[in-house]
Amino acid sequence: MSNQELENFQYAFRHYWKRYRLLFTIWALAMVCLSMGYSMFYKVDPDSRGVVLRLGKFLEKTEPGLHFKRPWPIDKAYVVPVTKVQSIEFGYSTVAAGRKTQYAPANEQRKRMSRMLTGDLNLALVEWVVQYQIKDPYHYLFKIGGDRGSSHSDNARLLISDVSEAVMRRIVGDVSVDWVITEGRDDIAAKAKMEMQEMLDRFESGIRIVAVKLQSAAPPDEVKDAFDNVNRAKQNNKRIVNDAKGERNKLLPAKRGEKERAILEAEGYRARVIQEARGRAKAFENVLAEYKKAPDITRKRLYLEAMEGILAQVDEKIVIDESVKGMLPLLHLDAGSEAVAGGKGGAR
Q1: Cβ contacts of residue 155 below 8 Å, gap of 6+?
Q2: How far, in Å, CA of 127 to CA of 202, rounded?
Q3: What Å distances lie between residue 259 and 5, 262, 263, CA to CA?
Q4: 17: which DSSP letter?
Q5: Separation of CA 249 from chain center
Q6: pTM for the whole thing?
Q7: Average pLDDT over residues 102-126
Q8: Poorest-confidence range of 60-74, 98-112, 154-168, 207-221?
Q9: Is residue 320 part of a domain?
Q10: Counted domains in the chain
Q11: What is the Cα–Cα distance from 202 to 209, expressed in whole angstroms?
């Protein structure tokens, strides 16, 4: 640009500035007022909470709705989602979730994260996911450190990742590989959740751990077949034990019923025997009372009744007269008249 063109531009600028400077000033002031007025209102969604700073210091937390604050740069409002459940995956990466979940191909970084040393000096490949929420927006925004220029979300995820990996490696390093791969997965997840929450609370992170889930726990590929065989054997063992327990549960009620029936029958028999014994005792007492009234008659009656009962059970009966000195031909009392008559005829 030549000097002449520069002078012409400066002349035109001064000319238009003198003519329209009032309009430019009014427009600039209007923009500033509109910007300040717009910054005096902010909205908090139902799933979020607000945090207001005044001159860089914490002022208040706000609930969902439309709120008023002093214009920027006096007050500054942050809106933080507190009901949203966020997830961080370790050892694997989900590409698309749905009816058929798709996972990203394994890379060296994810393999290195999932590879852990167990307490019995074996290797296990552990993949897990951590689900979390923001429970304290102020702590979440201003208590979590991180790299300058990084967002609050990035700082929180970095902290959770470090805490989760440290806790999980320590827990897995205290137990055997068999326990990690088989029945210990739920216990490991529960313990990891508790310890992660305690550590995050000490850091005043403002984060709540919702769940820790072990997606996979498997041995390295080199020994996977052997571990699968062991796992199948343990499953068969559990199945057999469950079948035995089911059979026991089926038989025990029947046996208990038989036992109760036998007890009731024994109690009934005991009660019957006791009552019969008491009846006999009462009858004997009654007989004794009558005996004391007339001993001879009662003794004779008892003798006759006893002999009647005894003789009724004897097939052959022999009557001996005390006045006879020797044994005479026997008289068969049970023989009929025809037998006696026949005997007489033979004597003739």
Answers
A1: 144, 145, 146, 147
A2: 26
A3: 121, 5, 6
A4: H
A5: 22
A6: 0.56
A7: 82
A8: 98-112
A9: yes
A10: 3
A11: 14
